[in-house]
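Work Package 4 report. The design task specified in the project plan requires that, given a folded chain encoded as C-alpha coordinates, an amino acid be chosen for each position. We show below one input record used in the internal validation round.
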Protein backbone atom coordinates (compact mmCIF):
# COMPACT_ATOMS: atom_id res chain seq x y z
CA UNK A 1 0.00 0.00 0.00
CA UNK A 2 1.18 3.51 -0.80
CA UNK A 3 1.02 6.05 1.99
CA UNK A 4 -0.05 9.62 1.28
CA UNK A 5 3.03 11.83 1.48
CA UNK A 6 3.48 15.53 2.16
CA UNK A 7 3.52 17.31 -1.18
CA UNK A 8 5.65 20.35 -2.06
CA UNK A 9 7.46 20.39 1.29
CA UNK A 10 9.91 23.25 1.72
CA UNK A 11 12.30 23.71 4.64
CA UNK A 12 11.48 27.41 4.69
CA UNK A 13 7.82 26.70 5.29
CA UNK A 14 6.79 27.47 8.88
CA UNK A 15 5.28 24.65 10.95
CA UNK A 16 1.68 25.47 11.71
CA UNK A 17 -0.61 24.39 14.50
CA UNK A 18 -4.02 23.13 13.46
CA UNK A 19 -7.18 23.12 15.56
CA UNK A 20 -9.80 20.70 14.34
CA UNK A 21 -13.30 21.06 15.80
CA UNK A 22 -15.49 18.03 15.14
CA UNK A 23 -19.13 17.16 15.66
CA UNK A 24 -21.31 14.21 14.81
CA UNK A 25 -22.47 15.11 11.30
CA UNK A 26 -25.78 15.50 9.60
CA UNK A 27 -27.33 14.57 6.23
CA UNK A 28 -26.50 16.74 3.17
CA UNK A 29 -30.21 17.28 2.52
CA UNK A 30 -33.49 16.54 4.32
CA UNK A 31 -34.34 13.88 1.74
CA UNK A 32 -34.69 10.13 2.01
CA UNK A 33 -31.62 9.31 -0.13
CA UNK A 34 -29.29 11.72 1.66
CA UNK A 35 -30.57 10.62 5.08
CA UNK A 36 -30.07 6.96 4.12
CA UNK A 37 -26.43 7.65 3.09
CA UNK A 38 -25.82 9.44 6.38
CA UNK A 39 -27.51 6.80 8.53
CA UNK A 40 -25.66 4.00 6.70
CA UNK A 41 -22.28 5.52 7.56
CA UNK A 42 -23.32 6.43 11.13
CA UNK A 43 -25.04 3.18 12.06
CA UNK A 44 -22.36 0.98 10.44
CA UNK A 45 -19.89 2.26 13.05
CA UNK A 46 -19.31 -0.53 15.58
CA UNK A 47 -18.63 2.11 18.26
CA UNK A 48 -22.25 3.25 17.85
CA UNK A 49 -23.98 -0.12 17.57
CA UNK A 50 -22.13 -2.95 19.28
CA UNK A 51 -24.36 -5.78 18.04
CA UNK A 52 -22.20 -8.51 16.34
CA UNK A 53 -21.39 -7.17 12.87
CA UNK A 54 -22.89 -9.97 10.74
CA UNK A 55 -26.24 -9.90 12.61
CA UNK A 56 -26.35 -6.11 12.57
CA UNK A 57 -25.64 -6.00 8.81
CA UNK A 58 -28.91 -7.84 8.16
CA UNK A 59 -30.96 -5.71 10.58
CA UNK A 60 -29.45 -2.46 9.24
CA UNK A 61 -29.82 -3.24 5.54
CA UNK A 62 -32.95 -5.37 5.76
CA UNK A 63 -35.04 -3.20 8.09
CA UNK A 64 -33.59 0.08 9.36
CA UNK A 65 -32.25 1.59 6.12
CA UNK A 66 -35.53 0.71 4.39
CA UNK A 67 -37.86 2.25 6.96
CA UNK A 68 -36.07 4.94 8.94
CA UNK A 69 -34.68 7.32 6.27
CA UNK A 70 -38.11 8.51 5.06
CA UNK A 71 -39.33 9.10 8.62
CA UNK A 72 -36.10 10.83 9.68
CA UNK A 73 -36.08 12.97 6.49
CA UNK A 74 -39.54 14.22 7.42
CA UNK A 75 -38.22 15.22 10.86
CA UNK A 76 -35.16 16.89 9.34
CA UNK A 77 -37.42 18.98 7.09
CA UNK A 78 -39.02 20.53 10.19
CA UNK A 79 -35.64 21.90 11.39
CA UNK A 80 -33.94 22.65 8.03
CA UNK A 81 -33.13 26.30 7.28
CA UNK A 82 -31.81 28.39 4.41
CA UNK A 83 -28.34 27.71 5.80
CA UNK A 84 -29.01 23.97 5.86
CA UNK A 85 -28.93 21.69 8.88
CA UNK A 86 -28.71 23.53 12.24
CA UNK A 87 -25.91 21.23 13.44
CA UNK A 88 -23.84 22.16 10.39
CA UNK A 89 -24.28 25.91 10.49
CA UNK A 90 -23.91 26.22 14.26
CA UNK A 91 -20.67 24.24 14.03
CA UNK A 92 -19.50 26.46 11.14
CA UNK A 93 -20.30 29.57 13.23
CA UNK A 94 -18.45 28.18 16.27
CA UNK A 95 -15.45 27.41 14.08
CA UNK A 96 -15.47 30.91 12.54
CA UNK A 97 -15.60 32.56 15.98
CA UNK A 98 -12.78 30.37 17.34
CA UNK A 99 -10.72 31.07 14.19
CA UNK A 100 -11.19 34.80 14.61
CA UNK A 101 -10.03 34.62 18.23
CA UNK A 102 -7.01 32.42 17.42
CA UNK A 103 -5.94 34.57 14.48
CA UNK A 104 -6.10 37.63 16.70
CA UNK A 105 -3.78 35.87 19.16
CA UNK A 106 -1.43 33.95 16.86
CA UNK A 107 -1.92 35.25 13.32
CA UNK A 108 -1.33 32.76 10.52
CA UNK A 109 0.54 30.32 12.78
CA UNK A 110 -2.72 28.66 13.67
CA UNK A 111 -5.25 27.12 11.32
CA UNK A 112 -8.79 26.42 12.59
CA UNK A 113 -11.14 24.09 10.71
CA UNK A 114 -14.15 21.91 11.46
CA UNK A 115 -15.16 18.46 10.26
CA UNK A 116 -17.92 15.95 10.83
CA UNK A 117 -17.48 12.35 12.01
CA UNK A 118 -20.13 11.19 9.54
CA UNK A 119 -21.04 12.94 6.29
CA UNK A 120 -19.53 16.27 5.25
CA UNK A 121 -17.11 17.97 5.59
CA UNK A 122 -15.38 14.61 6.16
CA UNK A 123 -12.52 14.36 8.66
CA UNK A 124 -10.08 12.94 6.13
CA UNK A 125 -10.73 15.74 3.58
CA UNK A 126 -10.23 18.43 6.21
CA UNK A 127 -7.05 16.78 7.54
CA UNK A 128 -5.68 16.77 3.98
CA UNK A 129 -6.50 20.46 3.64
CA UNK A 130 -4.72 21.17 6.94
CA UNK A 131 -1.66 19.16 5.90
CA UNK A 132 -1.53 21.09 2.62
CA UNK A 133 -1.41 24.30 4.69
CA UNK A 134 1.62 23.07 6.61
CA UNK A 135 -0.05 21.86 9.83
CA UNK A 136 2.53 19.80 11.75
CA UNK A 137 0.83 19.94 15.17
CA UNK A 138 -2.82 19.03 15.46
CA UNK A 139 -5.21 19.65 18.36
CA UNK A 140 -8.59 17.92 18.00
CA UNK A 141 -11.66 19.06 19.92
CA UNK A 142 -14.62 16.70 19.55
CA UNK A 143 -17.65 18.74 20.58
CA UNK A 144 -18.86 16.19 23.12
CA UNK A 145 -18.44 17.60 26.64
CA UNK A 146 -19.10 14.18 28.21
CA UNK A 147 -16.86 11.32 27.02
CA UNK A 148 -18.52 8.30 25.46
CA UNK A 149 -17.00 5.50 23.38
CA UNK A 150 -19.93 5.96 20.98
CA UNK A 151 -18.90 9.52 20.12
CA UNK A 152 -15.47 10.59 21.45
CA UNK A 153 -13.68 7.28 20.84
CA UNK A 154 -15.32 6.98 17.45
CA UNK A 155 -13.86 10.38 16.51
CA UNK A 156 -10.44 9.20 17.66
CA UNK A 157 -10.87 6.10 15.48
CA UNK A 158 -11.53 8.30 12.44
CA UNK A 159 -8.38 10.38 13.10
CA UNK A 160 -6.33 7.22 13.66
CA UNK A 161 -7.73 5.64 10.51
CA UNK A 162 -6.72 8.73 8.52
CA UNK A 163 -3.23 8.74 10.06
CA UNK A 164 -2.82 5.06 9.18
CA UNK A 165 -2.82 6.12 5.52
CA UNK A 166 -0.27 8.95 5.94
CA UNK A 167 3.51 8.86 5.68
CA UNK A 168 4.19 11.90 7.90
CA UNK A 169 1.63 12.24 10.67
CA UNK A 170 1.43 15.48 12.67
CA UNK A 171 2.03 15.67 16.40
CA UNK A 172 -1.36 14.93 17.95
CA UNK A 173 -3.34 16.16 20.94
CA UNK A 174 -6.90 15.01 21.44
CA UNK A 175 -9.35 16.49 23.96
CA UNK A 176 -11.19 13.60 25.61
CA UNK A 177 -13.88 15.55 27.45
CA UNK A 178 -14.63 18.82 29.21
CA UNK A 179 -17.70 17.92 31.26
CA UNK A 180 -16.36 19.62 34.42
CA UNK A 181 -14.25 22.41 32.86
CA UNK A 182 -15.15 25.50 34.95
CA UNK A 183 -15.55 27.94 32.00
CA UNK A 184 -17.98 25.49 30.32
CA UNK A 185 -20.06 25.23 33.53
CA UNK A 186 -19.91 29.02 33.87
CA UNK A 187 -20.99 29.58 30.24
CA UNK A 188 -24.03 27.33 30.72
CA UNK A 189 -24.93 28.95 34.04
CA UNK A 190 -24.78 32.47 32.62
CA UNK A 191 -26.76 31.37 29.57
CA UNK A 192 -29.50 29.83 31.73
CA UNK A 193 -29.58 32.85 34.03
CA UNK A 194 -29.93 35.20 31.05
CA UNK A 195 -32.81 33.06 29.71
CA UNK A 196 -34.53 33.07 33.10
CA UNK A 197 -34.14 36.82 33.47
CA UNK A 198 -36.47 37.17 30.50
CA UNK A 199 -38.66 34.08 30.91
CA UNK A 200 -38.75 33.60 34.68
CA UNK A 201 -37.55 30.71 36.84
CA UNK A 202 -39.32 27.37 36.46
CA UNK A 203 -40.65 24.98 39.06
CA UNK A 204 -38.39 22.28 37.55
CA UNK A 205 -35.25 22.45 35.42
CA UNK A 206 -34.66 19.29 33.38
CA UNK A 207 -31.12 18.65 32.10
CA UNK A 208 -31.52 16.22 29.23
CA UNK A 209 -28.55 14.35 27.71
CA UNK A 210 -28.41 12.06 24.69
CA UNK A 211 -28.75 8.47 25.94
CA UNK A 212 -26.59 5.41 25.29
CA UNK A 213 -27.47 1.74 25.92
CA UNK A 214 -27.38 0.84 29.63
CA UNK A 215 -25.07 -2.04 28.72
CA UNK A 216 -22.37 0.45 27.69
CA UNK A 217 -22.40 1.85 31.24
CA UNK A 218 -22.16 -1.64 32.73
CA UNK A 219 -19.25 -2.39 30.38
CA UNK A 220 -17.35 0.64 31.69
CA UNK A 221 -18.27 3.68 29.60
CA UNK A 222 -17.89 6.75 31.89
CA UNK A 223 -20.53 8.79 30.06
CA UNK A 224 -23.26 8.37 32.69
CA UNK A 225 -20.99 9.58 35.51
CA UNK A 226 -19.79 12.55 33.48
CA UNK A 227 -23.39 13.62 32.73
CA UNK A 228 -24.28 13.50 36.43
CA UNK A 229 -21.16 15.46 37.32
CA UNK A 230 -22.00 18.18 34.79
CA UNK A 231 -25.52 18.37 36.24
CA UNK A 232 -24.27 18.58 39.81
CA UNK A 233 -21.75 21.32 39.03
CA UNK A 234 -24.29 23.31 37.03
CA UNK A 235 -26.97 23.03 39.74
CA UNK A 236 -24.43 24.06 42.40
CA UNK A 237 -23.30 27.04 40.34
CA UNK A 238 -26.94 28.08 39.80
CA UNK A 239 -27.60 27.65 43.52
CA UNK A 240 -30.57 25.36 42.88
CA UNK A 241 -31.72 22.76 45.41
CA UNK A 242 -31.40 19.11 44.34
CA UNK A 243 -35.14 18.48 44.01
CA UNK A 244 -35.56 21.30 41.49
CA UNK A 245 -33.11 19.85 38.93
CA UNK A 246 -33.60 16.55 37.11
CA UNK A 247 -31.11 14.69 34.91
CA UNK A 248 -32.66 12.63 32.10
CA UNK A 249 -31.62 10.80 28.91
CA UNK A 250 -33.23 11.26 25.49
CA UNK A 251 -33.00 9.94 21.88
CA UNK A 252 -33.32 6.17 22.44
CA UNK A 253 -32.66 3.93 19.47
CA UNK A 254 -33.64 0.25 19.24
CA UNK A 255 -35.26 -2.16 21.67
CA UNK A 256 -32.69 -2.58 24.44
CA UNK A 257 -32.72 -0.65 27.71
CA UNK A 258 -30.95 2.74 27.61
CA UNK A 259 -29.80 5.03 30.42
CA UNK A 260 -32.68 6.09 32.65
CA UNK A 261 -34.62 8.14 33.58
CA UNK A 262 -35.89 8.64 30.05
CA UNK A 263 -36.65 12.23 29.06
CA UNK A 264 -39.99 11.41 27.40
CA UNK A 265 -41.26 9.38 30.40
CA UNK A 266 -40.17 12.19 32.73
CA UNK A 267 -42.09 14.78 30.66
CA UNK A 268 -45.25 12.68 30.88
CA UNK A 269 -44.79 12.15 34.60
CA UNK A 270 -44.14 15.82 35.37
CA UNK A 271 -47.11 16.80 33.21
CA UNK A 272 -49.35 14.35 35.05
CA UNK A 273 -48.12 15.68 38.40
CA UNK A 274 -49.35 19.09 37.26
CA UNK A 275 -45.97 20.85 37.22
CA UNK A 276 -46.76 24.49 36.50
CA UNK A 277 -43.59 25.45 34.67
CA UNK A 278 -40.74 23.48 33.23
CA UNK A 279 -37.54 24.43 31.44
CA UNK A 280 -35.35 21.96 29.56
CA UNK A 281 -31.67 22.48 28.76
CA UNK A 282 -29.36 19.97 27.03
CA UNK A 283 -25.78 20.32 28.41
CA UNK A 284 -24.45 17.53 26.17
CA UNK A 285 -25.43 19.32 22.96
CA UNK A 286 -23.12 22.30 22.32
CA UNK A 287 -25.10 23.04 19.14
CA UNK A 288 -28.80 22.87 18.43
CA UNK A 289 -29.72 20.04 16.11
CA UNK A 290 -32.52 17.64 15.26
CA UNK A 291 -32.35 16.08 18.73
CA UNK A 292 -32.94 19.37 20.53
CA UNK A 293 -35.16 21.36 18.18
CA UNK A 294 -37.45 18.59 16.99
CA UNK A 295 -37.21 16.06 19.80
CA UNK A 296 -37.13 18.34 22.86
CA UNK A 297 -38.71 21.64 21.81
CA UNK A 298 -41.51 19.95 19.80
CA UNK A 299 -42.04 16.27 20.68
CA UNK A 300 -41.29 16.39 24.41
CA UNK A 301 -43.10 19.70 24.85
CA UNK A 302 -46.14 17.93 23.43
CA UNK A 303 -45.77 14.98 25.87
CA UNK A 304 -45.59 17.36 28.82
CA UNK A 305 -48.58 19.46 27.78
CA UNK A 306 -50.68 16.47 26.73
CA UNK A 307 -50.20 14.95 30.19
CA UNK A 308 -51.47 18.17 31.79
CA UNK A 309 -48.30 20.23 32.21
CA UNK A 310 -48.23 23.99 31.74
CA UNK A 311 -45.56 26.44 30.52
CA UNK A 312 -42.88 24.38 28.83
CA UNK A 313 -39.76 26.18 27.61
CA UNK A 314 -36.71 24.87 25.81
CA UNK A 315 -33.50 26.78 26.60
CA UNK A 316 -31.46 26.87 23.36
CA UNK A 317 -27.98 25.35 23.16
CA UNK A 318 -24.93 27.58 23.64
CA UNK A 319 -24.27 27.52 19.86
CA UNK A 320 -21.87 30.34 18.88
CA UNK A 321 -22.64 32.60 21.86
CA UNK A 322 -19.68 34.66 23.13
CA UNK A 323 -19.70 32.91 26.57
CA UNK A 324 -19.44 29.58 24.82
CA UNK A 325 -16.65 30.69 22.48
CA UNK A 326 -14.79 32.04 25.50
CA UNK A 327 -15.08 28.65 27.25
CA UNK A 328 -13.96 26.76 24.15
CA UNK A 329 -10.98 29.00 23.44
CA UNK A 330 -9.95 28.73 27.12
CA UNK A 331 -10.15 24.94 26.79
CA UNK A 332 -8.16 24.96 23.55
CA UNK A 333 -5.48 27.27 24.95
CA UNK A 334 -5.05 25.00 27.95
CA UNK A 335 -4.33 22.14 25.55
CA UNK A 336 -2.07 24.26 23.32
CA UNK A 337 0.35 24.84 26.22
CA UNK A 338 3.93 23.98 25.40
CA UNK A 339 3.25 24.54 21.73
CA UNK A 340 3.88 28.25 22.23
CA UNK A 341 5.17 30.27 20.61
CA UNK A 342 3.05 28.89 17.81
CA UNK A 343 4.74 29.04 14.45
CA UNK A 344 8.08 27.89 13.10
CA UNK A 345 9.51 25.61 15.77
CA UNK A 346 13.07 26.27 14.50
CA UNK A 347 12.83 29.95 15.20
CA UNK A 348 12.85 31.22 18.78
CA UNK A 349 10.93 34.45 19.21
CA UNK A 350 12.47 37.27 21.17
CA UNK A 351 10.34 38.59 24.02
CA UNK A 352 9.58 41.71 21.98
CA UNK A 353 8.48 39.60 18.99
CA UNK A 354 6.32 37.40 21.19
CA UNK A 355 4.67 40.46 22.73
CA UNK A 356 4.09 41.98 19.31
CA UNK A 357 2.37 38.74 18.29
CA UNK A 358 0.30 38.73 21.46
CA UNK A 359 1.62 35.24 22.32
C1 LIG B 1 -27.73 4.02 17.38
C2 LIG B 1 -27.39 4.49 18.52
C3 LIG B 1 -26.99 5.86 18.86
C4 LIG B 1 -26.10 6.19 19.87
C5 LIG B 1 -25.37 5.24 20.79
C6 LIG B 1 -25.98 7.61 19.86
C7 LIG B 1 -25.18 8.35 20.73
C8 LIG B 1 -25.01 9.72 20.71
N1 LIG B 1 -25.47 10.62 19.76
C9 LIG B 1 -25.13 11.91 20.11
C10 LIG B 1 -25.43 13.09 19.41
C11 LIG B 1 -26.32 13.19 18.34
N2 LIG B 1 -27.09 12.19 17.80
C12 LIG B 1 -27.85 12.69 16.77
C13 LIG B 1 -28.72 11.98 15.96
C14 LIG B 1 -28.87 10.60 15.97
N3 LIG B 1 -28.41 9.70 16.90
C15 LIG B 1 -28.73 8.41 16.53
C16 LIG B 1 -28.36 7.22 17.18
C17 LIG B 1 -27.45 7.11 18.25
N4 LIG B 1 -26.78 8.11 18.89
C18 LIG B 1 -29.47 8.50 15.29
C19 LIG B 1 -30.01 7.32 14.51
C20 LIG B 1 -29.54 9.85 14.94
C21 LIG B 1 -30.10 10.43 13.63
C22 LIG B 1 -31.38 11.07 13.71
C23 LIG B 1 -32.53 10.15 13.48
O1 LIG B 1 -32.58 9.43 12.49
O2 LIG B 1 -33.42 10.16 14.34
C24 LIG B 1 -27.56 14.09 16.65
C25 LIG B 1 -28.23 15.08 15.68
C26 LIG B 1 -27.74 15.02 14.25
C27 LIG B 1 -28.35 16.08 13.38
O3 LIG B 1 -28.21 15.94 12.18
O4 LIG B 1 -28.95 17.06 13.85
C28 LIG B 1 -26.61 14.41 17.62
C29 LIG B 1 -25.94 15.74 17.85
C30 LIG B 1 -24.41 11.81 21.34
C31 LIG B 1 -23.85 13.01 22.08
C32 LIG B 1 -24.35 10.47 21.71
C33 LIG B 1 -23.74 9.79 22.87
C34 LIG B 1 -23.30 10.34 23.94
FE1 LIG C 1 -27.22 10.18 18.54
FE1 LIG D 1 -22.40 6.68 37.18
Amino acid sequence: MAFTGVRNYSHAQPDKTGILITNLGTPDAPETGAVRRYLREFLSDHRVVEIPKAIWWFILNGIILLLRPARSAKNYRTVWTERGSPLLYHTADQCAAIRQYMQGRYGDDVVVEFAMRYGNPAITDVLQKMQDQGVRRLLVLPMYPQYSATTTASTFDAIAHDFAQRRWIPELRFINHYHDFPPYIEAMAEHIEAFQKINGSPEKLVLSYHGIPKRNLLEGDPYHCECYKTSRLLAERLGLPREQVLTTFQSRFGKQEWLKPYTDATMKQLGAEGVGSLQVFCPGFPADCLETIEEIAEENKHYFEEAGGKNFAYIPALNAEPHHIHALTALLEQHLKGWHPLGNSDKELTVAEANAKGA
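The pocket of fe (ii) ion (ligand 2) is lined by residues 210, 251 (CB under 6 Å). Validation will be extended to a larger panel in the next phase.
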